[in-house]
Amino acid sequence: xxxxxxxxxxxxxxxxxxxxxxxxxxxxxxxxxxxxxxxxxxxxxxxxxxxxxxxxxxxxxxxxxxxxxxxxxxxxxxxxxxxxxxxxxxxxxxxxxxxxxxxxxxxxxxxxxxxxxxxxxxxxxxxxxxxxxxxxxxxxxxxxxxxxxxxxxxxxxxxxxxxxxxxxxxxxxxxxxxxxxxxxxxxxxxxxxxxxxxxxxxxxxxxxxxxxxxxxxxxxxxxxxxxxxxxxxxxxxxxxxxxxxxxxxxxxxxxxxxxxxxxxxxxxxxxxxxxxxxxxxxxxxxxxxxxxxxxx
Length: 296
Fold this sequence. Notes:
GO terms for molecular function: magnesium ion binding; phosphatase activity. By secondary structure, the chain is an alpha/beta fold. The protein contains eleven helices and 14 strands. The protein folds into two domains: 4-84 and 222-294, Rossmann fold (3-Layer(aba) Sandwich); 89-219, Hypothetical Protein, Haloacid Dehalogenase-like Hydrolase, Chain: A, domain 2 (2-Layer Sandwich). It has an eight-stranded mixed sheet with strand order 5-4-3-2-1-12-13-14.
């Protein structure tokens, strides 16, 4: 019998319009009525899921979410922290030294802001989705004691504008000309196989490929799998009693950890291959389908 379900947000619980369908919301409500713990497990920061927690009636002291891809696990009213793992300023500098020759963009999250070195589409989208202010700064002049939750490597260029914007079809962009820049060193395949990136990076950090053009870098022990595990321990729930549902690279560890790991119908192929079950797409209420099939 399953007692807990952990849900990715973008591409999983949310449809292309960034909404929770009535079907998904109704199924989650029925699951909670049966005593099932519902956990949102997302790459977003807590402010970016606050409205959804409200919609699902999860704004309670004893309800928790896995945020920032596992680096920050907190209760849904932000008063109790279960897990918080940071990267240091020196670690940021080391990562920049590796990737600066490729002329890619970067951003990183703190508790209350998203910082970037240069204007870029992805960071505007991140700031909007997470309801966090964005600041363009010289990374050489940051406070050396800054606590970094996660770093995002951003490989974007005008040549892949349509492909990247299709990932976020209904998120508004204030400056439509932000994609008017080209990069003569742009390599579309740069992130194709993250195992071929710096061996030093792979040994020191958790690397999560969230799209073909974005890689998240976190503390080595931070990922959604560990975040879900920490909450299972808190609730006294066994891994065999957990369902985890996701669609992209930062969902891999929690899908592998779960008693039932589920890939969305719209998931990337390597996530489908490791899943125990493939549900319908996020446009077809795939979360509701899983709840109705395995819980209700």
